[in-house]
Amino acid sequence: MLLGNSINNLKEILNIVISLIDQVSIIHGFGFENIDISANNIVWDGKKTYLIDLDSLHPKGQISYNKTIGFWINNMKKNSNYIRDYQRIFFVFSFLFANQNMFFL
Q: According to the lineage, what is the superkingdom (predicted)?
């Protein structure tokens, strides 16, 4: 299932983030970066995340543009694509955490 509507506790959110870090590390290990990481491009099966829509991948060091407009911050422009991939994971965590906490208001 795609992220966003189905996450209902902090433990699950943390498991998603840990799984995302693992997935991104694997992709980086194969020499690719600039992953389009957003809640719309992550599938969660309850145990593991799967990144979908990988058409933005390219070899490390190649100049690229950002496709994750909803999660883009101008200050990230100075960072490498490698660092941006991990920053995007933080944005997904923030999105999920905020959605989870709105149920407690």
A: Bacteria
